[in-house]
Amino acid sequence: AQKVTQAQTEISVVEKEDVTLDCVYETRDTTYYLFWYKQPPSGELVFLIRRNSFDEQNEISGRYSWNFQKSTSSFNFTITASQVVDSAVYFCALSEAEEYGNKLVFGAGTILRVKS
Amino acid sequence: DTGVSQNPRHKITKRGQNVTFRCDPISEHNRLYWYRQTLGQGPEFLTYFQNEAQLEKSRLLSDRFSAERPKGSFSTLEIQRTEQGDSAMYLCASSPGDYQTQETQYFGPGTRLLVL
Predict the structure, then answer these.
(1) How far apart are CA B116 and CA B114, in angstroms?
(2) For residue A39, what are the contacts with CB-CB under 8 A and spacing of at least 6?
(3) Least buried of A47, A94, B67, B99, by fewest C-beta within 10 Å?
(4) What's the DSSP call for residue A11?
């Protein structure tokens, strides 16, 4: 069975601090996909990144970086020099490779509050 | 490029009434998903369409829920005899429908339902 755990319910930081959001997943499949989405107060889920299980390279996109470690089943997300606009709920999600469709299993989310 | 749209954005209804939500996916996206998100939780998968065919339904989708995608374009989600426990955000997502690759799902703004 698939499961995603985001142990941090809420994190508060001061602007310009770095912050890491943790994500641990469980799956029996060898082929799977991991995602991060951002949900600002408006409610719409915004796609941030997709990573497949065969690609363990870390990725950096501007102030965002992701660390994927299969050995620990983790896919952590770091925001460098946080800004107030980063305040949102962040969700990690898992999808197993299926012939039809790729439903997402989400974690409970981490609320990030960035204070000025 | 127009994103996923959902209508209405908010719906307040009395217990026992029927409600219907609409989702318009990104143009030419063949796959369409419905999720439900309750307060403080991540979205949970409800059902999935490949064109007009409903290929998977979660056990969360009780017999009071029905979804259609009659022409493989927009989709409707109907809840009959609403209960207070149906109060949630209903999210729609779409993806291209390419069998060769895992796809990213793009989400709409959601319909927030409150059952009084």
Answers:
(1) 6
(2) A45, A46, A88, A89, A90, A91, A109
(3) B99
(4) E
CB distance A52–B102 less than 8 Å? yes
Q: What is the pLDDT of residue A6?
A: 98
Each residue of A37-47: pLDDT tens digit? 999 988 899 99
Question: Which of these, B37, B61, B30, lies nearest to B47 by C-alpha position?
Answer: B61
Digit-coded pLDDT (tens) for A73-95: 999 999 999 999 999 999 999 99
Of B42, B103, B112, the CB nearest to A102: B103
In 10 A of CB B38, how many CB atoms? 13
**Averaged in consecutive runs of 10 residues, what is the pLDDT profile of chain B (116 residues)?**
91 98 94 95 94 88 93 94 97 82 86 97
Question: Is B42 in contact with A101 (Cβ distance < 8 A)?
Answer: no
Residues contacting residue A99 through CB under 8 Å, at least 6 positions apart: B99
